[in-house]
Specification:
The protein is of the alpha+beta class. It is built from one helix and four strands, in the order E-E-H-E-E. The longest helix has 11 residues, at 22-32.
């Protein structure tokens, strides 16, 4: 039986690592590590720790 792991990361759309967007860095890392599948989904709004709707703006 194949072992499968799921990793979820929630971050701000504009969050950066150096001069690049963090999402791009993460997906590139997964590619270098030969992760079988990776997906980045963009949410339009989110709930913060106080359950108040907010946007990334």
């Amino acid at each position: 039986m194949t072992e499968v792991h799921k990793l979820s990361a929630y971050l701000a759309e504009r969050e950066r690592h150096g001069c690049r967007f963090l999402t791009e860095e993460i997906l590139e890392l997964f590619d270098r590590r030969r992760v079988a599948a990776s997906v980045a989904l963009r949410g339009i709004t989110s709930f913060g720790p106080r359950n108040v709707i907010r946007t990334d703006e």
